[in-house]
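Weekly structure sync, notes
Attendees: PL, DS, HV (note-taker this week)

Item 1: Phosphoribosylpyrophosphate synthetase
DS walked through the input record. Source organism listed as Adhaeribacter terrigena. Sequence as pasted into the shared doc:
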Amino acid sequence: MQDKEEERSLINVEKRLDQEGFTADFKVTEGRLCVMGTDKTYPADQVQIVDFYRFEGESNPDDMSILYAIETADGVRGTISNSYGTYADSKVDEFLKQVEDLGKNLDKRNK
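Item 1 (cont.): predicted structure, written out as tokens:
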């Protein structure tokens, strides 16, 4: 059995997600999710956050990041990460907030 700290390291979580098929690397450009290395892009309503993981820096609690496991409407699975707080990329934050808000609306309709 793996040590809990070892499992929670960013590298190990990325490795596990890769084995689960989350192989694409995403970035946010001009308000759309882009698959790095391709010309595929997606608006927020074609993106779902499957899971997310928070990581805190060893030496500085302010050095936090979050890794999102994402799936698109056409089945592309991958990850995107962002810093927390002061160092966060506002474009990534804004896009993922739209995705979360759309997901909440879908959840309400499906109940």
